[in-house]
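Fold it.
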Amino acid sequence: MPTQARLKRRISTTLRTPAGQAGLAGVLILIVAWWLMRKGLTGYEFTDLRVYYGAMNWWINDNESLYDYTIYLFGNELPFTYPPFAALLFSPFAAIGLASAYVIFTLAGLAAFGLALWWMLRGLISEQEWSPHFAFAVGLALMLALEPVWVTLAIGQINWLLLVLVLADGLALTRGSRWAGIGVGLAAAIKLTPAIFILYFLLTKRYRAALIACGTAIGATLLAAALAPQESIRFWTQALWDTERVGIASRIDNQSLGGLLARLTDSDNANKVLWLGVTLTVVAIGMWRARIAAQNGNELAGLTLTGLISGLASPISWIHHLLWVAPAIILFIGAALAGQKLYYLAAGATWALFASVAVFSMSHLDGFIGAVSDDAYVWGMLLILLLLPVGNYMPAMSLSTRSSTERNGSLQSTVR
């Protein structure tokens, strides 16, 4: 027994040192890396990045029409579906090799997600007096285990850039910057769906930010039109409206309300009237809660709720589009640390669900479990939309100088 006590003290002492914390963090990251490999990280083979890369070579080097490009991968014909402004950002791919593109895009994605995670965690780290490097490494390991996060890495998606651009505007708003809105405007010009954050600005009476976001998106779009006029005309008049280019709504990896309704009605696409009614209801509830969060000074909660709505409301939301579950977990932890201990359960359940690969791992089962697992992430996001606390308990995206006790009081009075 004395030997065990000495061993425990030695371990405890070691973990308090920077070297011990760095070692433990490294072990956690290695465990997650091994787990990801077991989950088949390499089997995705940078699918989306290969679309970006192939489309740029087809357009620039072969002098073909951008929106005629398709590549056949894993039994699917995949076209380039992004606006022309995104094509301008991807255009350097035409000058480098595919292997170089893999490395550059992966490192840039990891750096972008790491930056976003630091922005979201740093307030909690400071307030709780955690070791910054250790807490960040543990957070990164846990977040990399989430399916939307690691699939984004595995297929070479651009979603991390969009997350950073939106969060940058969140920081700008909390700091009173006159230029808040540029990030959302650029994100909307790259991938359209982030335009919903302009609605968030309007509902929270950030009219200047909304105007700047609109101006930035329009300016970027006009720049693309000036540099690529034919492709711009083709996209805005034809490709944008061709819904078959994106995919069939009933596919199991489409975890949106449209996908849920299509599968429940056993059809390729949801009934438009039904989809519109359900979607407008969800958007109204979610944006109402996002507005309350913003009024309470919790910018991260407002942005997270809006991001979740964008995933639910979009006709097609592939699993890698659901990155906003990551800040939702951080928000649940923040609420628990502020005194509402049940939110630890919410954080754990959210992490377990989105790290479980439930949609694919249990979809083959018959009966109720199989049916629920087909739409597991949709139901999960709907629950988060209703349960995410909207009080000002999070220091991460706020310049509030209120104490933990005051934030805890705000949490208890405004959680619903």
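The chain has two domains: 42-240, 249-416.
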